[in-house]
Structure formats: C-alpha cells, structure tokens
Amino acid sequence: MQNKTLYLILLIIGTAFWGISFTFVKVSIGQGSPYVFLFYKFLTAGVILVLVFYKHLKQITLKTLKIGVLISVPLLAGTILQTIGLKSTSVSNSAFITGFDVLLIPVLKFLVYRKKVAAKVWLACATALAGLYLIAVQDSLSLNIGDLWTIAGAFGFAFYVLQVGRFSTEENPIPAVLVLMFFCAAGCFVLALTDTSSVWMPAESDFWTGILFAGIPATAYMYAVQNIGQRYIAEEKIALTYLCEPIFATLAGFLILNETITGRTAVGGLLIISGMFLAEINFKKQIKE
C-alpha cells in the first residue's frame, strides 16, 4: 500500500475520533472554563506522544522549536475559538461552520502563498461542502455569537493546515508535533489562570472522560498522523478528509444515542465521499484511456 493511501485511511479514522469528540467536548466544558479543558487535553496528548516517541526528544533543536511554534499558534487559536463557540452553539452548527476550512484552505493557499490549486479540487471542495451542509443543517442555519467564534476558529484551522504543509518536507515531523502539544498546553494554562470560572480539579466524571477521549485518539493520534501524512497529501486534500467528521458523528449518534439517520444525511454523506473521489481522479489519464 502506498504511503499516500495509508495516511489517507489513517486520517479518515482520525476524523471519526474528531466527530465523536464534539459531543464529549460540549458535555465536558459545561459552564466551566474551556481553557482548563484544553490545557488538560493538550497536556494528555503531549504526555502520550512523549511516551510513544521518547527517542525523538533528542532531535528537538532550535529549528524544531521554531517550526513547532509556527504551527502551534494557528492551531491554538483555532481550537480555543472553536471550543468557546461550542459553549453557545449546537454541535451540528459547529461541525458545519468548522467545515468551511475546506474552502478556506485552497483560497488562502492561492491568495497568501500564491500556489496554484487544481480546478478539480475546487469542484471536489464545493461538492463535499454541499454534502456537509445537508448533514449538519437539518432545518436552518442561524448565526449566533457561538457561530461567529467558530467562523474565526475555522480560519485558525485553515492556517494551521497550511503551516504544516509549509514545513512538511522536514525529515522528521514528530519532534515538532511534541513541541506543538506542549506549546498549546502552556498557552491554555496561561489563559486558564486569567479565567475566573477555572476549576482545576472538576468532580464530574464526564469532564475526565472527555479529556481522555479528546486528548488521546482525537488529538495525540490525529495530529501525529496528519503532520506525517502531509508529506504525501496536499493541504486541500487533507481538508477534504476532515469533512468525513460529521458522517462519523451522525453514525455515533445512531449507534449510541439511537438518533435517526435521515435521507438528507445519507445524500450528504454520499456527496462528501464523492468529493473525496473527485479530488483523487486523474481526469487526463481517464480521458486518454
């Protein structure tokens, strides 16, 4: 199996963890400080990655620290803004609005980095985003303050993916990922110190369950796979895999919470998968054949 195909599969598995984690995060932060939750999430992810990749610690250099910080800043901003928004918006709205980064990434890639984006990728993004709309917006989409925070967060995630792509040619991305996790944890810790609603040892078991799920599979696993995978997969195609997130969230709701899967959901899922295939098809080769 080619590295590109392998990491595409691993990324899709990661989007399943992300999709499920929306519910965990919303329940965990409740009325408390989102910064405390995020501090523990990134700290947990960092510790797990150090235990797995401890041999890579000696490869951390000043250059690694610089790269780690440059990819950390937009991820930290995006995560904080999305989590704050999730306190006052629905999971479906959050998933849909965050999905806007699938269009922001090729747009910003073209405007900021002056890199050409293939026409088929634009078509794939539009197709997948239409599918995401059908899944996430069952009735109507109305913007509140939480939605506006989430829109700002989508820009953060888009710049994060572009920054990772910018440094994806580095020989070993893992040391930078380790820096990423602890930088984000430190940033959230500082913000939590300024938040009067911060409770450092919540008694609710849901909080710690959310930390374990969001920290290990949805953060440690996903960001390690993504940073390595972007050595083989273009940024805009990485974004397309993110749109699988609401599909898995819907399936989890059906299997765990007995929620109904509607016709809109089925059609939306088909459009998302179609968008991913469109991005991978070599049209010139197909025409020649």
Automatic annotation (TrEMBL):
SUPFAM superfamilies: Multidrug resistance efflux transporter EmrE. It is found in: Cell membrane. It is a multi-pass membrane protein. This is EamA domain-containing protein. Keywords: Cell membrane, Membrane, Transmembrane, Transmembrane helix. The chain crosses the membrane at residues 7-29, 35-53, 65-85, 91-112, 119-137, 143-162, 174-194, 206-226, 238-257, 263-283. Residues 7-136, 145-278 form the EamA domain. It comes from Flavobacterium hercynium. It holds the Pfam family EamA. It comes from the Bacteria. One of its GO terms (cellular component) is plasma membrane.
